[in-house]
Design a protein that fits this description.
Blueprint lengths: L3 E16 L4 E17 L3 E5 L6 H9 L2 H4 L4 E10 L2 E4 L5 H8 L2 E4 L13 H12 L4 H14 L16 H13 L5 E5 L7 H18 L2 E5 L3 H7 L2 E6 L2 E7 H6 L4 H8 L52 E2 L5 E2 L5
Parallel strand pairs: 3-8, 3-9, 6-7, 7-8
Antiparallel strand pairs: 1-2, 1-4, 4-5, 9-10, 10-12, 11-12
């Protein structure tokens, strides 16, 4: 417990849908349906799954920006942040009470072209968190911005340029520098390389690993490409339709997945072997991903699962400890 930086307990996130003449609540989207996990200081936890499974929502819930994006969102459960001042529950803190802890958690966004204000210089973009969360002087901020740009592989002299003067990979480096500006303990990387070319992806991932080693950072790395996640992560959490179905050491899940959905997800990863030696058997799931508006009862994966039984419709299977650092939400594996 003392070594955990984040403890998520039974987190549920629901987005109400309003309709009709009087805009009454007619339905709700269960984006996250009761997930629990911890993050250890200094580790990288990779969170993977198909689009719409709730990965990004989980990250936004941890950083507590959901109410800003969707004021009517319903967030239940607990998110405990371990700070130097003590253990703080941040899931539903208001904007003013959350502000002192914002410096502890920062975010790298998916789209480097949309996440940087085109009207601001790089200097202004990177120093903004310092203006909000530190008491640095102007000279100290200028010096720190130059130091950060150097750390992420950019020339400090470029600080007076605007975002449109940089490539996609360079913009993402600016976003990383901004995330580092307040010396955070936890960084949520929301698909930080999905919008970049493959060669640039490797550069950004290697940069994140170097920064983690130097500053002792903890990463929640959100992505849909499990091969990228396996490369950077110490542990992997697999999500499906708002639930965690498997969590464990990266090597174990990548090389020997247990949950039927994890197996199907891994089978879709192409192997660079022209002769087909060691080729995985491709698992084709039947049907489509159910809508979060009409989520199946019990196990959300049961309508597509090749080993589903009648009892799977009765209750959501809890994560079961396998004893090797892995937990799987399926009683039949």
């Amino acid at each position: 417990m003392a070594n955990n930086i984040i403890e998520v307990k039974n987190l549920c996130v629901r987005f109400p849908i309003f309709g009709g003449l009087f805009l009454r609540k007619v339905a709700e989207v269960k984006a996250i349906d009761g997930i629990s996990f911890d993050m250890i200081r200094g580790e990288t936890l990779g969170m993977v799954g198909e689009s719409g499974c709730g990965k990004t929502t989980a990250g936004r819930a941890i950083i507590n920006i959901l109410h800003t994006i969707a004021p009517d969102v319903i967030v239940e459960g607990e998110i405990w942040l371990n700070t130097d001042e003590g253990r703080i529950e941040v899931a539903n803190l208001k904007k003013k009470t959350m502000k002192p802890y914002r410096a502890e958690i920062q975010m790298i966004f998916q789209d480097p072209f949309a996440s940087l204000n085109p009207r601001l210089t790089v200097m202004r973009i990177v120093e903004e968190p310092m203006l909000l969360h530190t008491k640095m002087s102007k000279a100290e901020r200028t010096e720190h911005v130059g130091w950060l740009l150097d750390k992420v592989g950019l020339n400090p002299e470029q600080s007076q340029r605007y975002p449109h003067e940089f490539s996609g990979g360079q913009r993402q480096r600016i976003g990383i520098a901004r995330a580092l500006a307040t010396n955070p303990k936890l960084i949520i990387a929301d698909e930080p390389v999905s919008a970049l070319d493959v060669s640039i992806q490797a550069q950004v991932i290697n940069l994140l690993q170097d920064l983690q080693d130097e500053f002792g950072l903890t990463f929640l790395f959100i992505a849909h490409d499990i091969s990228v996640v396996e490369h950077i992560s110490s542990r992997i959490a697999v999500m499906y339709l708002g639930n965690l179905v498997e969590i464990g050491l990266a090597d174990s899940i990548y090389n020997d997945p247990k949950h039927p959905y994890s197996k199907a997800l891994l089978s879709a990863v192409p192997l660079p072997d022209p002769k087909g030696v060691g080729k995985r058997e491709r698992i084709i799931l039947k049907g489509d991903v159910p809508s979060p508006l009409a989520k199946p009862s019990g196990c959300g994966f049961r309508t597509r699962c090749p080993i589903a039984k009648e009892s799977c419709a009765k209750e959501v299977p809890p994560l079961r400890d396998f004893g090797d650092g892995r937990s799987v939400a399926c009683p039949w594996v």
